[in-house]
Amino acid sequence: MEPIEQEAAVRYTDADGLADALRDADALFVYDFLSTAVPGAWHAANRLRWLHIASAGVDPVMFPAMRESDVVLTNSRGVFDNSIAEYVLGQVLAFAKDFARSIKLQRERTWLHRESERIEGRSVLVVGTGPIGRSIARLLRAVGMRVAGAGRTAREGDPDFGTVHASARLNEHLPEFDYVVAVAPLTEQTKGMFDASAFAAMKPGARFVNVGRGELVVTGDLVEALRAERIAGAALDVFDTEPLPAESPLWTMENVHISPHMSGDFVGWRNALVEVFADNFRRWRAGQPLVNVVDKGLGYVPSGG
Q1: Which domains are delineated in the chain?
Q2: What pLDDT sits at residue 11?
Q3: Which one of 242, 270, 275, 285 is the catalytic residue?
Q4: I need a surface site. Which of 79, 82, 156, 304 has the fewest CB within 10 A?
Q5: Is residue 5 annotated as a catalytic residue, yes or no?
Q6: Active site includes 242?
Q7: pTM above 0.70, yes or no
């Protein structure tokens, strides 16, 4: 932030001081991308022109007053694409090679020979066709998996997904896939899209991976699907309540892999987020077009945005 401090008056604040810091501010950098403080302080944004959030998802700042304002919204698209793709590949391998059970047996000093699954030739549906979804598709395709996408518009011949199915018809296509990866942005259309009907439509042996938003999933329906073995397992990095409550049954399910919202967090990610903001700040000061401008009607950066 030092170069920015030489060109602008920078105020650092926590949630409690946000309203005071917002008064007469031209730009707001929401570095704590999980913070819910912005709506409550919005009344003080008397001259704000630009808001940047340190994440790809923008749902924490997509409240009605922000949507209706003239404030330009940008995000940090691109920082986490490859690291999240690596996480997804790791979870696919963990399921196929039964790593969790191997670790458990090692701790018990038990020698138990088993056979594992191949991932080559297995089918994957990536729900969300933005940059993170594309990175996931490319990496899984590189190890021999058959990949398709699900997005707003159905199409053929996509360079990364091949076939893209319409998300509105998701349940019709879920039975075709061995793995389903959720990475869609959280919008009114995607909230709760993975519910009882979606899990019932999946293959009994399918695995579900969520690296998008916890609210994409109806958690109670997922728990019931896992208990009833309607799906074979789930790898969850995001939850509708974070931290995941200690009483959640997900903690103790043997067919569930849990991580604390860290799928994209590689060594150096914090600095990388500031660098994205700093680059856009330089553009803003020079009167150049900003990158990663969010369409506030859609809730994400359109392709090429």
Answers
A1: 2-78+266-285 (3.40.50.720), 81-258 (3.40.50.720)
A2: 98
A3: 242
A4: 304
A5: no
A6: yes
A7: yes
